[in-house]
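Issue: copy button drops trailing tokens. Both records pasted manually instead:
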Amino acid sequence: MSEAPENPLSPPPLSNSTAGILAFAAGAMLILPALDAGGVIDHFTLNLWGKYFCYALLALSVDLLWGWTGLLSLGQALFFALGGYMHGMYLMRMIGTQGQYHKPIPDFLVFLGWTDLPAFWKPFDQFTFAMAMVFFLPGILAFLFGWLAFRSRIKGVYFSILTQALTYAGALIFFRNNTLMGGNNGFTDFKEELGFALREPSTQRGLFVATAAALVGVVIFLRWLSGTKFGLVQRAIRDGENRTLFSGYATPAFKLFIFVIAGMIAAIGGALYVPQVGIINPSDMTPDKSLEAIVWVAVGGRGTLVGPILGAVAVNMLKSYATRAMPDLWLILLGGLFLLVVLFLPGGLVSLPEKIRGLWKKSIPATLPA
């Protein structure tokens, strides 16, 4: 009797690489703060790893679209920055009268001649409202843009160009002082979060733990999603959208849902990024930031859960070193790394062990038959 076929909708077995990244993030969540508290590593190092994990969330949002659905979005940095701005508005409200002008409104508004808070700023003294807006504003923007784009059957390079135009337009809007969002300087000089001083090492350790926990949660969610019927349709759209459409699936609705989810994941990364880095400004939503995220995913390996995280951490570690040691050559180095991966390692860093195993097998002469 033949064995029953495996259920295609059941979640795939947890690969060694995925289990490894979950164990790494979970271990880092506990070990790095303990090392920081014990003085083994400095606060800057812990803060730097928190930033890397925030970038990993942005990379996962890019890969959810590009690697798993075949949608190359060049605008994910916009959603990342919007999440940061929503959290930043709460942090700016928490400054109170501790600013340069000792007024109960942000200093940049005092500089622009305002004596009272604009109406849309007032609810942001509530943490829960700010966190709701971290999800709502990027989500509604992704929904509106995606609905218009997918309804019009825009795809391929045209979709990429439109997403790039979207993030460029967003940056131009936020650069303007009359947008009342800090203009070119954005938000900075934050003081506290939920009553805890942001400059205190214990607060930074708590933020790092929250970032690592968010990364683990997003990885688990995406792995679960990939094992559902929705995940199968998602990959079918990537491999052949027309065939999926002719099979009776409303592919625009599937793509719209994924675009909104990806925007929210990027926004989570941005919201966690702001209190750890201490600043958010329109330069964080310019098209070049989205292009950097594309490089992270390509270097790590798209279409995987591990690749985007590995690429985001590895490239930004390299950036941290290169911008100190050879700042004038960093962009050339980044471009060269991207070309190297595309030409010689299209599967990214996650495919490197398999490549090495293949070369090793080829180097061993075949055993002659007896």
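Record 2 (pasted manually too):
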Amino acid sequence: MRRRTAALAIVALSVAGLLNACSADQPPAADSPTAGPRSPAPSPAPAPPSAGGAPKGLPAAGTAPTTRFQVEVRTLRFHRGPDRPLTTTVWYPADGDGPFPLVVFSHGLTSEPAAYASVLRSWARAGFVVAAPAFPHTSYRARDFDALDVINQPADASEVITRMLALNETDGDLRGRIAPARIGAAGHSAGGITTIGMFSGARDPRLIAGIVLSGRRVLPAPFTGPAAPLLFVHGKRDKTVRYADGLAAYRAVPWPRAMMAVTEGGHVAITKDFGPVITTTTDFWRWSLYGDGTAKDRLKADATRGGRATFTDDL
């Protein structure tokens, strides 16, 4: 009990500063849209399946689709127990045979999946199934808002992965759409905290890559289990989650990692139709979930195009 109380106290201190800026987010309509010393002894990142072992229909490791897919959007009613509804918006390629990698996305405090539609739709158009739950106590429409509930959200996001994989076996539109060995997690702000949790004490071993947007670590010993490459994106003018906190989380990663620092970026700006972030995060998914080396080679150039961001590459 004392350990849980201490963990909640740390979460409380970490998320208290998120409230003002995240509360200022006004979600759109439903479908609008210098690195420090590295931790010792990193483990090699798990590679996607080799060409010979790739799931049927999935491009061989080393290639990603070049098609810009049409996108379908579905709303699914998941639950993790009777008191944790997880209404989940799914963006997925409507054409093409698949299967496609799965990305689970976690929103920030007082936000919702629709607020990130421009980014998530772009990922789906590039050949990814994107599932974004609205968390029961921290979303825009939460009836009983509780910032401390962030500590429970890694398990919620993992439940969404489990439910999506079940639909991959049974549901008409989504049947056969997902490549179970190629799963990533991403999140913004408190959703970034949630994502870090999925690679930490609440480690989901199914994850092979992740993206943290304007996030920070909460517990003192993050990043456990199998190695997975992580991309951090943070605005240097973020007044809600300080850039220094995002940088500290990045430096704590013992695996392949990269940091895109947006020079004039604030807390929310980096998720609002900011082209370099969309392009760079898509490149990262193409490399980490499809094994496309050419996408990896584009990361720095795409992140720094126009001189609006810097990119530290330790992948």
